[in-house]
Amino acid sequence: MFTHHDDNIDDRGGPDRFKAMQAYSRLKNLLVAQRVPPHTKLDAGVLCRYLNVSRTPVREALIHLSIEEIILNVPGSGFFSKPLNVGDVSEDYDLALTILKHIIASDVASFPTSRLALPKPPVPASGTQAQLQPALAFKEFIERLFESVARAAANRKYLQVVHTFNARTAFVRHLDLQRAERFDEISADMCELVECLQKKDVKGAVENLDRQFRAKMDILHDLVREGNVYSANASVNWMKLLN
């Protein structure tokens, strides 16, 4: 229905497609940031007034979000926001880990440097120019890195899965990085992963990903609980953020 990157919005599909992409992007940003209380009904007729579009592009956006399992589509009842779920997040990580390890083990050693375009880790500012949001900056770096690995495989399905994984687990990732001790651990691990990939050290990269996965699973219940507390306290006036 849509391209897998929100920033690839264009009008090649006509004005209706462009409006649907805008509605999709704006709704998705709020949903993955847990700014919508869980179990909130997402009514296209109401949302269209805040998005300044007709019902059709909003409904198209909601259908796509439900396909990505970011929201629920309950037959006969409509679309609803969903709370974070340990089982779902664990499955997302397991699938993404399997794909990334497969790409690295099968292909990374043969990738030319031009195909493995790795992003650079963010460098925290020092002194009076202290970085305002180090956790957010590193979260975005991690997501770009995973997508760079998936993109290097030249497999559209892999890239779509990793992109969806990044969106569905974004808030959990951000919460994890906001813990000082975990930020230090994760940033060190990710820098090591980049180094392994640059050296085409397959064994080191796979072991690194396995170690990071185990560490995430050890605290996943706490992260999901914290995320659901945050979303439960989200403003009931969240739709005003769509304007």
Automatic annotation (TrEMBL):
It holds the Pfam family GntR. Residues 17-84 form the HTH gntR-type domain. Coiled coil: none annotated. Keywords: DNA-binding, Transcription, Transcription regulation. The keyword Plastid does not apply. SUPFAM superfamilies: GntR ligand-binding domain-like (SSF48008), Winged helix' DNA-binding domain (SSF46785). One of its GO terms (molecular function) is DNA-binding transcription factor activity. InterPro entries: TF_FadR/GntR_C, Tscrpt_reg_HTH_GntR, WH-like_DNA-bd_sf, WH_DNA-bd_sf. This is GntR family transcriptional regulator. It comes from Neorhizobium lilium.
